[in-house]
């Protein structure tokens, strides 16, 4: 097994300015570090480094996505607007998507990172990969930056797989705690991409990611939403993966599986109210490794999205990487948070969570085989 890991220091230089939480500073919002900061990603990579896991990975370096590649998804007017604002010192992609003077260049490098990792896996240079890109991408729509996202990195990787790498079908599993609205918009009427999003029910964007939204036209049945109640933990996520995600992938039989890997369903995240811990993320990764082994020779590419707990994101990320690398259980990093979290109540699947997963399970019947 070989696992690629992609990072570039410029990702940490993406400048979201000052703010508080997910808001930019101004008015009554006193300035401190913006909630989407480099810290969680740096600390994830640092923990891989000090635990020796980074040395076990194949290093991947990104290139910027070309205009032609970005325009597979985004409108020319939108791309030009981002370039102009970036050249003028920064701006906002639309809604809660601030960026600084290097905004366009870093966003193009993030999209290019997702593409680079996908190329390496589809070409067979490596078995699977994690692209730790920034800014994230799954909220970005064709002509609108949203929720810290400028370009739709994961969607652009899927389009690249289809249009340049010979993939007929691509599956995207979005385990970020927020709805993958940008990915859904990109492929809602496209039958070649199965877009599955698990998210805290009606969190961000508001009124988005309903279980009844399952695609339209040629894309009928190729969008699956699994909205989960606030407070869902490892039990709910494992059940959703076993009962909805894995069967959908088995039915659709994609050529490659991409993961929009937000680590913000974690127990400590400031922007959501879920309870997943590092063993929960490892379990989700394991289920995906097993199903991709059975349908597409294990071709699995994880592309980083959100995740805002500086304390917990690094351990959740390391747990995922250990699964990708196939580190034996006895040799794994001990997450010091796990002992505390393990004693907390309501980690098991709860009846109302079971019912929510049941509603998503019903939508499986329309996934084209
Ligand atoms: Zn998120």
- Low-confidence stretches are none
Strand order across the biggest sheet? Answer: 5-1-9-15-14-11-12-13
Protein structure class: alpha/beta
Q: Please provide the ordered H/E string of secondary-structure elements.
A: EHEEEHHEHHEEEHEEHEHEEHEHEHHH
Please state the CA-atom Rg, rounded to the nearest Å.
19 Å
CATH homologous superfamily? Histone deacetylase domain
Beta-strand segment tally: 15
Largest sheet: 8 strands, parallel
| Count of the domains | 1
Name the hetero compounds present. zinc ion
Provide the helix percentage. 25-40%
Would you state the CATH class? Alpha Beta
Instruction: Give the count of helical stretches.
Output: 13
Report the average pLDDT across residues.
Answer: 97
From the 3D coordinates, which CATH architecture would you assign?
3-Layer(aba) Sandwich
Overview of this protein structure:
With 369 residues, this protein is of the alpha/beta class. The protein has one domain: Histone deacetylase domain (Arginase, Chain A), CATH 3.40.800. The chain contains 13 helices and 15 strands. The strands form four sheets. It has an eight-stranded parallel sheet with strand order 5-1-9-15-14-11-12-13, with helices on both faces. A three-stranded antiparallel sheet has the order 3-2-4, with no helix packed on it. α9 packs parallel to α13 and α10 (278-296) packs parallel to α11. The radius of gyration is 19 Å and the shape is globular. The two termini are 29 Å apart. The structure holds zinc ion (ZN). Zinc ion (ZN) is lined by residues 176-178, 262, 264, 305-306.
Give a short overview:
This protein is an alpha/beta fold and 369 residues long. Helix content is 39%, strand content 15%. The strands form 4 sheets. An 8-stranded parallel sheet has the order 5-1-9-15-14-11-12-13, with helices on both faces.
